[in-house]
């Protein structure tokens, strides 16, 4: 028995009697019995009832907060649960009339817009119909009134099929639009007349083109309204998607991955552009390799996952854009508390050694607890110093080591993690291969911040900023240590702390396995109490280099010297030019030549030096072994304010000091003033091949001589105009032990003037030369 209520709240039909009443005797609404029956039959198996909506937004909800209960579905545009209509429940396509910007349209809605009929592909609002991801043209025109809004105000039925097999059986003369419900391949297909034989043959996955069994593909085909990603081709998160990915790349010339996971469980090569949606990623199974040879377009997200390998071995026709990746694609992110180096290494491994590449990094701190090896031509590209920071937690490894040629590091910063309290021994970067570059990099202290190894020939470094906290001045430590030929360094600034700094800002030669040639060092500006540039030939030779624009500002501590040439063992140093050196008064000396080896220091030209120091030595010549010779001090060297402008220790040969370099000292007319050790000689270049004039020489207050001289290929000297038997002149060059023991000897030869001290002790010598 049925009972009808119509009291405004409980209207509807209820089941009466004793059989189908509830436990408390209330009547049961017929509509709920119907819904329960449909669910029991499996038709509404996705419906949940209750006072709270289901967490799965794809389900239907029988809302029992209302009486009668209301069947609802989730509206993603309005972000609300809304009452289900018969059209949405039973797949009936509603006619919505003229398109309106304020209306919310769902998939399969039909509207009239600018004389055409359009079908909605996905939910939208305020998105005018056009051939895009939201709308598809359904009917071209209604001008002949064959299809008019009046005829479509009722429900327009669109049929559904569950498989492609069923789709092929549809009678295309009666049904021209159909919705495929096959899992993973859902979408609207339209019957389209025309020759689709080539497309059907090419689309082996039946993703876009499906042949009807009763119609030749040359006459028509079912054509998918839209295909946005590999899921339309059968890709899955749970089974190998290689075939689906290949099918999309072959048919469309590109691959797009949808939100969520796509599994690759076979070796796969994609030779087409690849696009990742927000939230999309690929999992490559262990032992498998995913190779992509074209451009990748993805947001900053972790898109390559799994234990398998990823190879971005781009081919020659893919262009440079194909070689640009982001560290986040491999799982490296700023702000993480775990080591990001393994993820970054995956990026290097992926781009490989076949061609150049760019690995980009975000603004923020990357925590690093292990080393990484850069691959051939890889550019580590940060967002700028003090922006992209590698925060290093431990020692014992170089943060970056080159694994192949032409690696580059730019716009990054290295810092110690706050947990690091010991002085770092290992470098931040090691260049072990040729043609590598470092530019715009900021580094905190380490025993060696950068090492250019024996294989790092032709390295370039620009705009390097070093900071030293409290690192001790340990012997052998250097900001940049160069052991390879052809290194070019342009722009180094080194800051300081009150007790920190390396032994040298830049050191060339130490520990090299072979000779080092052609270093070029320019624009070094520092304040810590270190040697600015140290050229060290130990068991090898360092040769044919240039040093320019070294500025020691000297606000803290006492630097040993701005530039030092040093030999030890069997090493030699030769063939350098030095120009543009400014030295603060806190340096012990401006430039030092220290010959300790069995080799030589020779053929070095120095010019453009200004030293503001008033104590100690200006330029030092120190020899304990080997040969120290052929050093030329030019006219624009100004070290005359020093207590000893030029200091000699040990025998020297061919030390030529331009007389103009010493003009303007505190004694009028002095061209040279310096300390000369016993059995030591030096020379002064007189500026022309044939020089005639007068030379006045004194040693302390005892020995003095005045001579007429002619320095030419046929030299000549006069006798001493002052009676001093121990001060003599000879018409030849002098080498330190050439003249008579016990004498102070002046010599001339080929435009040069020589002075030799054999008096038995070091002498402070003053020399005045006046041209005729």
**Count of beta strands:** 66
Strand content: 35-45%
**Percentage of residues assigned to helices:** under 10%
The helix/strand class is mainly beta
Q: Mean pLDDT score, rounded?
A: 85
Taking all Cα atoms into account, the compactness measure Rg is 44 Å
Write the SSE topology:
Elements: E1 2-5, E2 12-15, E3 28-29, H1 30-40, E4 47-50, E5 60-63, E6 70-75, E7 80-83, H2 86-90, E8 92-93, E9 95-98, E10 104-105, E11 110-113, E12 116-120, E13 124-125, E14 135-139, E15 156-157, E16 159-161, H3 164-168, E17 177-180, E18 187-193, H4 197-202, E19 209-210, E20 220-224, H5 242-252, E21 255-257, E22 260-264, E23 268-270, E24 274-276, E25 280-284, E26 289-292, E27 296-297, E28 304-305, E29 309-311, E30 324-326, H6 341-351, E31 357-360, E32 364-368, E33 372-374, E34 378-381, E35 388-392, E36 400-402, E37 408-416, E38 429-431, E39 437-443, E40 448-452, E41 460-466, E42 478-482, E43 488-494, E44 504-508, E45 516-517, E46 520-526, E47 531-537, E48 541-552, E49 561-567, E50 572-583, E51 589-595, E52 600-611, E53 617-623, E54 627-633, E55 637-638, E56 644-649, E57 653-657, E58 672-676, E59 680-685, E60 691-699, E61 703-711, E62 716-717, E63 727-730, E64 744-749, E65 752-757, E66 763-771
């Amino acid at each position: 028995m049925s009972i009808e209520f119509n009291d405004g709240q409980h209207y509807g039909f209820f089941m009466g009697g004793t059989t189908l009443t509830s436990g408390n005797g209330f009547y049961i609404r017929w509509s709920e019995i119907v819904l329960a029956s449909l669910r029991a039959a499996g038709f509404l198996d996705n419906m949940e009832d209750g006072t709270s909506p289901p967490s799965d937004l794809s389900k239907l909800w029988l809302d029992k907060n209302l009486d009668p209960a209301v069947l609802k579905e989730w509206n993603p545009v309005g972000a609300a649960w809304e009452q289900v209509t018969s059209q949405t429940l039973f797949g009936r396509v509603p006619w919505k009339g003229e398109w309106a910007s304020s209306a919310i349209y769902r998939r399969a809605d039909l509207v009239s817009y600018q004389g055409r009929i359009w079908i909605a592909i996905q939910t939208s609002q305020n998105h005018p119909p056009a051939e895009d991801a939201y709308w598809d043209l359904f009917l071209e025109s209604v001008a002949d009134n064959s299809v008019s809004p009046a005829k479509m105000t009722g429900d327009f039925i669109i049929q559904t099929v569950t498989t492609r097999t069923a789709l092929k059986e549809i009678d295309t003369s009666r049904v021209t639009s159909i919705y495929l419900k096959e899992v993973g391949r859902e979408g609207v297909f339209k019957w389209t007349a025309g020759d689709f034989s080539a497309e059907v043959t090419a689309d082996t996955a039946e993703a876009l083109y499906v042949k009807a069994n009763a119609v030749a593909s040359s006459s028509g085909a079912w054509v998918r309204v839209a295909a946005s990603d590999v899921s339309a081709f059968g890709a899955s998160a749970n089974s190998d998607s290689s075939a689906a990915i290949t099918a999309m790349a072959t048919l469309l010339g590109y691959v797009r991955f949808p939100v969520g996971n796509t599994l690759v469980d076979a070796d796969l090569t994609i030779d087409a552009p690849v696009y990742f949606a927000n939230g999309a990623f690929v999992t490559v199974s262990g032992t498998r390799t995913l190779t992509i040879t074209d451009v990748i377009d993805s947001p900053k997200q972790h898109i390559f996952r799994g234990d398998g390998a990823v190879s971005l071995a781009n081919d020659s026709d893919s262009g440079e854009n194909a070689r640009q990746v982001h560290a986040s694609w491999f799982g490296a992110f700023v702000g993480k508390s775990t080591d990001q180096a393994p993820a970054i290494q995956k990026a290097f491994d992926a781009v490989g050694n076949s061609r150049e590449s760019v690995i980009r990094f975000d603004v923020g701190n990357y925590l690093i607890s292990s080393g990484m090896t850069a691959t051939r031509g890889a550019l580590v590209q940060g967002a700028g110093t003090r922006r992209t920071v590698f925060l290093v937690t431990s020692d014992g490894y170089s943060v970056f080591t080159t694994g192949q040629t032409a690696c580059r590091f730019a716009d990054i910063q290295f810092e110690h993690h706050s947990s690091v309290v010991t002085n770092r021994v290992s470098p931040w970067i090691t260049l072990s291969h040729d043609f590598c570059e470092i530019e715009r990099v900021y580094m905190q202290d380490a025993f060696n911040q950068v090492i250019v190894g024996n294989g790092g020939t032709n390295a370039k470094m620009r705009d390097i900023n070093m900071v030293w906290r409290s690192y001790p001045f340990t012997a052998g430590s250097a900001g940049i240590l160069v052991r390879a030929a052809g290194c070019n360094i342009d722009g180094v600034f080194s800051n300081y702390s009150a007790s920190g700094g390396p032994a040298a800002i830049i050191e060339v030669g130490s520990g090299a396995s072979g000779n080092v040639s052609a270093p070029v060092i320019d624009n070094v500006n520092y304040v810590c109490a270190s040697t600015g540039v140290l050229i060290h030939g130990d068991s090898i030779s360092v040769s044919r280099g240039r040093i320019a624009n070294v500025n020691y500002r000297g606000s803290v501590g006492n630097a040993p010297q701005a530039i030092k040439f040093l030999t030890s063992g069997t090493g030699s140093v030769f063939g350098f030019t030095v120009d543009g050196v400014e030295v603060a008064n806190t340096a012990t000396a401006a430039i030092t030549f220290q010959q300790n080896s069995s080799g030589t220091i020779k053929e070095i030209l120095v010019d453009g030096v200004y030293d503001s120091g008033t104590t100690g030595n200006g330029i030092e010549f120190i020899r304990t072994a080997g040969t120290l010779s052929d050093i030329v001090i030019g006219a624009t060297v100004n070290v005359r304010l020093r207590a000893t402008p030029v200091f000699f220790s040990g025998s020297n040969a061919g030390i030529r000091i331009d007389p103009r370099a010493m003009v303007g000292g505190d004694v009028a007319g002095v061209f040279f003033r310096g300390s000369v050790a016993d059995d030591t000689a030096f020379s002064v270049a007189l500026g022309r091949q044939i020089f005639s004039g007068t030379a006045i020489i004194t040693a302390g207050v005892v020995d003095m001589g005045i001579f007429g001289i002619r320095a030419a290929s046929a030299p000549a000297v006069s006798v001493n105009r002052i009676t001093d038997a121990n001060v003599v002149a000879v018409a030849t060059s002098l080498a330190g032990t050439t003249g008579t023991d016990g004498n102070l000897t002046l010599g001339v030869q080929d435009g040069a003037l020589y002075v030799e001290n054999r008096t038995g002790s070091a002498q402070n010598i003053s020399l005045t030369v006046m041209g005729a």
